[in-house]
Amino acid sequence: MLPHHLARKLLVPHTMNNLSNTTTPPNREGFLIALVLLAVGGMAWLFWPFLPGLFLSVLLATSSYPLYRRLARHFPIPSVKAPLIMTVLMFFLVVGPILYLLIATAIRAGTLAHEIQGWFAGLGSAEALAGAVGGVLGNLPVPDAAREELLAWVGANRVRIGQSIGMGVLFVFKGITNNGLAFIASLVLVMFALFFFYRDGSRLTRQLKILTPLENQYDDILFERFAALATVLTASTLGIALLQGFSFALVTAFMDLPWFYLGMAIAASSFIPVVGGMVVWAPTAYVLYLHGHAGQAVFLALWGGLVVGFLIDNLLRPILLGWLANHISRGPGGDLRIFDHTLLTVLATLGGLMQFGILGLFFGPVIAAMAISVFDLYKIIHGDSLDHS
User: Fold this and answer.
1) pTM of structure
2) Residue by residue, what is the 3-state secondary structure of 200-223?
3) Would 133 be classed as within a structural domain?
4) Could you tell me which of 228, 212, 232 has the C-alpha nearest to residue 381?
5) What pLDDT, in 10s, does the model give residues 307-328?
6) Are residues 331 and 370 in the same domain?
7) Both ends of the chain: CA-CA distance in Å?
8) Do 234 and 317 belong to one domain?
9) Largest pairwise CA distance in the chain
10) Which of 19, 133, 181, 297 could make an SS bond with 288 (beta carbons 3.0 to 4.6 A apart)?
């Protein structure tokens, strides 16, 4: 009887020859492709509600991954704790300001509602009512008799009007709070996924490179393009928000206003499309005007419209995008030519906003740039067969 290891040496070549001689089952590749498509479709359907949050966590992890590697390399931190430290840091940078704004706005909304109710209740005399409301009613294009009746009705129902306006303020804040809490819940999911992307990012990238049928050099082009694009978009968006918030906080600090709250509000509102920080500086200027500070109101409105809105948002943002696109490019995959085409960038941003809301500020340019990357990759691979005449 032959030893076990000799028997294996004799049987293995025979078995391998039998496997190599067997014909491939019919329709195996088609069936395998169908299984892969079903698996991808099933996973996409299952995780569809979480895809925007997961995509945002991928962007954050990709843009901050060099910092994570530097943290894990240069500090004596166990490998398990480094992802946790980075996740906690990102949590305080992203979720912390939103929590502060929600809490501070809740306190101010309650105070405002109480002041409005007290102001209307304090209009006891006809003279006080005429002085407070008569100026507004005097600008209405109605006959004098109707204006007098309207003024009398306001005087008879002033307490109920004050309560209704106060409840309206609280109702608006409740709607904002519900949206904010939903947004915070999605950010918690983003932070949860961010930990695993930090910890397993290198391994996930290697697995993707193995699963794709492309050569590794072409996979590297796509990965480098995505990494450069994520870094440029995240750094430019956060940089513009910080510049707008700091400039507005600096001005309001000299006016003895709640500068920290207003600066944080301007930074957060910079993500709102079209209007941006105007939702903060315009009401602030109007309140200053109502309290008799006309000069400060005009200066704050000019600063918000010209410096925060026009100079930083419309002039510095394209400059910062171009500078980052030129300095963060990494090899052939770092070519970010999408930012050289203003029309394409604007359309991608607007399309992202229409499809994904505020997160479309990131998603739209990323999708457009990655589509251009796929076209470039096709040209690289099949350049010899294309007509360049």
Assistant:
1) 0.66
2) HHHHHHHHHHHHCCCCHHHHHHHH
3) yes
4) 212
5) 888 888 878 877 887 777 777 6
6) yes
7) 73
8) yes
9) 121
10) 297
